[in-house]
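Quick one, probably user error.
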């Protein structure tokens, strides 16, 4: 393992210009012996949640382009453990995952905003050792 940990941010370098990851900041939510998972936190998705057919009944809510993997699903980061069950506690009061029905209720009924909840289409994933190799080759810088 390296200096990488869940809860750390990585920022792309000039080595990734011209790729999906150009000018991205990624929050690592998992980093263990199986690999790493993270979400791009600074790349808005071209549609809002209410523009997706299955969520056309809810209030407008921004989506983020979380990464190139599994773009058929929504993923959540939130600061509402009292309202949303099942999240994994990270750092700074942030939780990864949780009951999506409760996420929608928090947005639609309780008025949660993008400071409380971030929704992502897709995620970023690396196999064991892959992200460390990319850091070593200079593709990413680590922010603690």
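Nope, works fine. Designed sequence:
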């Amino acid at each position: 393992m390296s200096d990488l940990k869940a809860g750390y941010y990585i920022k792309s370098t000039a080595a990734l210009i011209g790729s999906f990851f150009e000018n991205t900041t990624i929050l690592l939510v998992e980093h263990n012996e199986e690999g790493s998972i993270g979400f791009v936190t600074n790349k808005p998705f071209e549609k809002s949640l209410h523009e997706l057919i299955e969520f056309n009944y809810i209030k407008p809510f921004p989506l983020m382009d979380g990464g190139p993997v599994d773009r058929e699903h929504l993923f959540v980061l939130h600061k509402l453990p009292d309202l949303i069950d099942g999240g994994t506690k990270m750092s700074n009061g942030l939780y990864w995952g949780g009951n999506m029905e409760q996420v929608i209720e928090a947005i639609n009924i309780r008025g949660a905003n993008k400071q409380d909840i971030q929704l992502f289409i897709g995620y970023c994933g690396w196999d064991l050792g892959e992200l460390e190799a990319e850091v070593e080759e200079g593709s990413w810088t680590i922010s603690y």
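The CA atoms of residues 2 and 23 lie 23 Å apart.
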